[in-house]
TrEMBL record:
Composition-biased stretches (Low complexity): 315-332, 378-402
Species annotation: Nocardioides conyzicola
Segments for region (Disordered): 300-402
InterPro entries xref list: Ig-like_fold
Protein name according to UniProt: Uncharacterized protein
Extent of Polar residues compositional bias: 300-310
Domain of life of the organism encoding this protein: Bacteria
Length: 402
């Protein structure tokens, strides 16, 4: 924890907005190490009192009104623990904004923690951590839960042993900071799922008016490639076109649904074949020079993408030497597969029983109940592996609240 606070003091932790409001788009659960915001799993009764639980975060398309962006994190906790985000700050006295957007169709209970190192404890492993209960109502829409104005019951911890050193009554953060001798570094954390109900989380915001940072959890981006014959082919030849589909981390997307499209004279693209997987292929009969591309539709977890165009060139036919020599007859149309009509669209994703987050240091998991992805999205629910972290006194995922 002392290391984390020192990192905040030196400006080594990134992610805060010094001036002006900022939005940070987080792909999946990829909050980089050293960022001021980290995913965390905490105990509901006491910050370090966590039950053994491996919580896998899920990513899904936002449902209901008031969501931020297109996707969010979802969790289906067992109960007793809570999952959420911890954010580290240089000044607890001036941090007046800390909130999380929550969606829980059955409602959810949770806990907020505020960590503060008093000036007299600077350079030690001692830290005050306040606890307050929070909740979100049963709703199909999103509810913003602010935590800076709550009354916290404060306990002093030795962060090296996680043992309690002292306990005082309930107090708001500003009054407690003044009583402890002045401003200092610290953190806010808010987490949900104490009752075991599925929950979706998004839009973690921390800072002060005019200088806050909002974290928008979105799906992974995808990249699609295409390859085929490098030399001209003869009219009527069958050629094989291949492609690869990976997310923006370079991880192959095994469940990708890719459509091979051919460009028409009017500039539109017609569907030729469909394949599924991270490595796709299609064999087509080419009668004239044609430009192709692979198009991958989005899923609740991954955004769609389109490969660069690839042109298969048909060589000019050789001049016949004997006009009387009959030419080959037309290819039997039965040899050519009938292409599907129209362009596939993604079906709506059925709402999952839960929306979920991750463990900042190891792996939480859960999947939000995504609504239907727009026209070009598919209802495949995928679960990203992620890590859960604990609120460190200002940087270490296990040092602070988790």
């Amino acid at each position: 924890m002392a290391t984390a606070l020192a990192a905040v003091a030196s400006g080594a932790l990134v992610g805060a907005s010094a001036s002006g409001d900022a939005v940070v788009v987080v792909r999946g659960t990829d909050l980089p190490a050293g960022n001021r915001a980290q995913l965390t799993m905490v105990g509901c009764d006491a910050v370090f009192d966590r039950a053994a639980e491996s919580l896998q975060p899920m990513i899904g398309v936002n449902q209901g009104t008031g969501g931020l962006g297109k996707r969010s994190l979802a969790f289906d906790p067992a109960g007793g623990n809570a999952v959420g985000v911890v954010g580290y700050v240089e000044s607890m006295a001036t941090t007046s904004v800390a909130s999380m957007a929550v969606r829980a169709e059955s409602g959810t209970t949770g806990v907020a923690y505020a960590g503060f190192q008093a000036p007299a404890d600077t350079g030690t492993d001692l830290m005050w951590i306040g606890r307050a209960e929070v909740s979100a109502p049963a709703s199909t829409g999103w509810t913003t839960v602010p935590v800076t104005g709550l009354g916290y019951v404060w306990t002093k911890y030795d962060m090296s042993t996680r043992e309690q050193v002292a306990t005082v009554g309930s107090s708001g953060v500003p009054a407690f900071v003044r009583a402890m001798g002045g401003d200092g570094y610290g953190f806010y954390s808010v987490a949900f799922g104490c009752d075991g109900n599925p929950v979706s989380l998004d839009g973690w915001q921390i800072g002060r008016p005019g200088a806050s940072t909002t974290y928008d959890f979105e799906g992974y981006r995808s990249t699609t490639t295409i390859d085929g014959p490098s030399a001209p082919v003869t009219a009527g030849d069958r050629v094989t076109l291949t492609g690869t589909v990976a997310d923006d981390r370079g991880t192959p997307i095994a469940g990708a649904r890719a459509v091979l499209q051919a460009k028409q004279p009017d500039g539109t693209w017609d569907t030729v074949q469909v394949d599924q997987g991270a490595h796709v292929r299609a064999t087509v009969r080419v009668r004239q020079t044609t430009t192709y591309r692979w198009k991958v539709f989005s899923t609740p977890m991954t955004e769609g993408s389109t490969s660069d165009p690839f042109t298969v060139t048909v060589a000019d036919p050789a001049e016949p030497t004997d006009p009387a020599t009959p030419t080959d007859g037309p290819t039997d149309p039965g040899d050519e597969p009938s292409p599907p009509t129209g362009e596939p669209t993604e079906q709506p994703s059925a709402p999952a029983s839960s929306d979920a987050p991750v463990e900042p240091a190891e792996t939480p998991s859960v999947e939000p109940t995504p609504p239907a992805d727009p026209p070009e999205s598919e209802p495949a629910s995928e679960q990203p592996a992620a890590t859960t972290s604990e609120p460190a006194a200002a940087g270490a995922s296990e040092d602070a609240a988790g």
